[in-house]
Amino acid sequence: MADGQASGIRCEVGGRRHPLAFLGCRGLNYGQHSALPLHPFRLSVPETALAGLLDEPFNGFLQTCREDDLLYEESDLPELMHAGYPDITAMLAGHRPLLAGMLLDFMIGDVMDAIGRASGYRPLHARYWGDVEAADARAYFTVNQVQTVSFADGQVIFEGQGYYGVYVIWLTHGRRA
What's the CA gap between 89 and 70, in Å, rounded? Predict the structure, then answer.
């Protein structure tokens, strides 16, 4: 599934195609001010591919919501509770506004991670805290914030802003060779 071509996933930054293996998502300070110049992006994922990409994290999120709702006897997402905690396929079939909100507010990192895995990217794993050699040094586009999630022509469309490059913060305290 190199570059997402086989799956139909497509990313455009400033109107130009961007390779999926070089697409990331800002974790720390997501959506906050960026010192790097921001560029508009549009990511389109076929609805038929979304379930395969997100089944595991989506089902885990649903389970956490269900357990929290029972434990606290109230729900942070009452619409989800009233819908019966449907899986992603059922959400696509009958609860699109709710699904769009959940993707936007809770699952953008999961979406980006799943697309990265589907494109063949495998992140380096630090051998110890502060392992500078394991820093992700690839030049890529980092999503700073997704502003809208919509559905059109069988696609789930994510639009927002991001920057070229990556903020890498390495703590060297406690570094062991």
Answer: 24
- Residues with Cβ within 8 Å of residue 161, at least 6 apart in sequence: 38, 39, 40, 41, 143, 144, 145, 147
Alpha carbon distance 158, 108 (integer Å):
9
Beta bridge partners of 27: none
For the stretch 56-84, pLDDT in tens is 999 999 999 999 999 999 998 999 999 99
Q: What is the C-alpha separation between 56 and 67, in angstroms, rounded? A: 17
| CA 168 from centre of chain | 18
H or E element in which residue 145 lies: strand 141-152
Fill in the DSSP letter of residue 28.
Answer: T
User: What distance in Å separates the CA atoms of residue 92 and residue 83, rounded to the nearest whole number?
Assistant: 13
DSSP state of 3: G
Q: What is the mean pLDDT of the chain?
A: 84
Instruction: Give me the phi and psi of 89, to 5 degrees please.
Output: -65, -45
Tell whether the model's pLDDT for residue 28 goes beyond 80.
no
Give the pair of three-digit tokens for residue 88. 């992603």
